[in-house]
Amino acid sequence: MKTLLFLVAFATLLPFSLIAEEKLTCFELRTYHSNDGKLEDLHARFRDHTVALFEKHGMTNLIYWEPVENEENLLVYLLGYPDRASRDLSWKAFRDDPEWKAAYRKSTESGKLVGKVDSVFLELTDYSPVSSFPAPETASVYELRQYTTNEGKLDDLDARFRDHTIGLFSKHGITNLCYFHPSGDQENAGNTLLYFISAPSIEARNDSFKKFGSDPEWKAARDASEKDGKLLVKKGVMSMFLKTTGYSPVK
Predict the structure, then answer these.
(1) Which residue from 6, 40, 29, 39 is spatially nearest to 115, judged by alpha carbons?
(2) C-alpha to C-alpha distances, 101 to 35, 93, 97, 104, 115, nearest whole angstrom
(3) Measured distance CA(117)–CA(75) in Å, rounded
(4) 2-39, pLDDT tens digit by residue?
(5) Are 143 and 67 in contact (CB under 8 A)?
(6) Any idea what DSSP says for residue 250?
C-alpha cells in the first residue's frame, strides 16, 4: 500500500487559528513503518518521551494516528514549525538531547523499533477552513483523501474545491478539516491535493458521500470543471481512514 500524506491540527476542540497564532507555516508529516512486533513499543516511546521532548525543543505536536486497518504497522504524526530553518534547528536539538538518547537506547535494547521513516513537508491551501476541530464524540474517524491531477489541472481542482466542494461537503454532513499541497520542493508538489475530513463513524461518512455524489449541484460543478478534460489522473484518488492514538492531542 502506497503511503499517503496527511495531517490535522491539534488539541480537543482546539481552534484551527492556533496555526496563525503560533505562526506555523511549515508542516511535516512523518510516517513510521514499525518493525514486526514493535508497534506498541514505538507507541510507548512516543507517549512516555518523544512527544514531550518535541515540545521541549520548539516543535508543535499536531496529531498522532494509526490507520484503522493497520496491516503495515504504521504510526503517522504531524508537526508544525514557524519555517523550515526552525524545523532543522529543533530536530538537531532533539537528537542531541541526552534524555532522547537514553530513551532511544533503552527502547531498542531488543532491536530497532522502526524500519523506515517517510517525511513530507506540506503547506495550507488558500481555501483551507479556519475552524475548530470536532469534539471527540462527533469525530471517531478521520479520513485522508489524496488527489493526483493531470498536468496543469491542480489550479482547476483547487477552484472546484474553493467554489463548490467544500460547501457541498458541509451541506451533506461532512466535516471539513484542512486542505494542503506538498511544499514546492516536494515530489508531486504541482499535482497533488491532500485534505482531511471527519465523521462519527465510517458508516456516517459513507452515507454523507452518497448524498454528496448524488447532489445535482455537485454534478453540475464537476461537469463544468471538466469541460476541457478530466482533472484527475486515472485512479487519482486515494483514501485512508485513521484513528487517533491514546496520546494524541486530538482524541
Answers:
(1) 39
(2) 20, 11, 6, 5, 18
(3) 10
(4) 444 433 333 333 434 455 556 788 889 899 999 999 99
(5) no
(6) -
Same domain, 239 and 130: yes
CA pair distance 119, 121, nearest whole angstrom: 7
- Domain that residue 63 falls in: 18-123
d(CA 237, CA 53): 36
Write the DSSP symbol of residue 140.
Answer: S
Has residue 88 been placed in a domain? yes
Question: CA 128, 125, 17, 45 torsion: positive or negative?
Answer: positive
Tell me which DSSP letter residue 221 carries: H
Q: Let me know if residue 22 belongs to a domain.
A: yes
Number of domains in the chain: 2
Q: Is residue 199 part of a domain?
A: yes
pTM: 0.84
pLDDT single digits (tens) 159-203: 999 999 999 999 999 989 889 999 999 989 999 998 888 888 999
Phi, psi of 63 (to 5 degrees): -155, 150
Instruction: Please name the helix (run of DSSP H) or strand (run of DSSP E) that holds residue 232, with its range, or none.
Output: strand 232-244
Residues 139 and 103 in one domain: no
Domain harbouring 179, CATH code: 3.30.70.100
42 secondary structure, DSSP code: H
Q: Return the HEC string of 198-240.
A: EECCHHHHHHHHHHHHHCHHHHHHHHHHCCCCCCEEEEEEEEE
Name, in order, each residue with C-beta under 8 angstroms of 203's C-beta and a sequence gap of 6 or more.
none
